[in-house]
Amino acid sequence: SAGGAVMPHHVRLAMELIQGDPFAKLDVHSLAKSTGVSVRTLQHNFRKFRSCSITEYILECRMRRLHDNRNSPGFINDVAESVGPNAMSRMRQIFRARFGRDLLQS
């Protein structure tokens, strides 16, 4: 974090929106609009206080949610339908690299 400084409200709010539904069609523009700041301000402060980009944080939340629900075929199918086959294929690759197993293994 930024030397003990308090995380700005817009960064916390963006994190809450992402955590609420990491598979939603989220992007920096919609998050900036939802949090009431410019794209540049949100990107800068997100990196400053989270030490990662917004896109990296969305991916991290997605991987965590997939891992937590890996034994729920219904959840995995819903995600696949929501994000589409190309994104799901990419998420499976990232999941395998991160957790050492295929997302679809039981």
Any low-confidence stretches, pLDDT <50, length ≥5?
A: none
Apparent shape: elongated
Q: Note the gap between the termini.
A: 37 Å
Beta-strand proportion: under 5%
Task: Indicate the radius of gyration in whole angstroms.
Answer: 15 Å
The average pLDDT score comes to 91
Structural class, from helix and strand content? Answer: mainly alpha
Order of helical and strand elements: HHHHHH
Total beta strand runs: 0
The description of the largest β-sheet is:
none
Q: Count helical runs.
A: 6
DSSP helix fraction: 55-70%
Give a quick precis of the structure.
The chain has 106 residues and is mainly α. It contains six helices and no strands.
Protein model, in words:
The protein has 106 residues and is mainly alpha-helical. 69% of the residues lie in helices and 0% in strands. It contains six helices and no strands. Helix 1 (9-20) crosses helix 2 (28-35), helix 2 (28-35) crosses helix 3 and helix 5 (73-83) crosses helix 6.
Outline the secondary-structure elements:
Elements: H1 9-20, H2 28-35, H3 39-50, H4 54-68, H5 73-83, H6 85-99
Helix pairs in contact: 1-2, 2-3, 4-6, 5-6
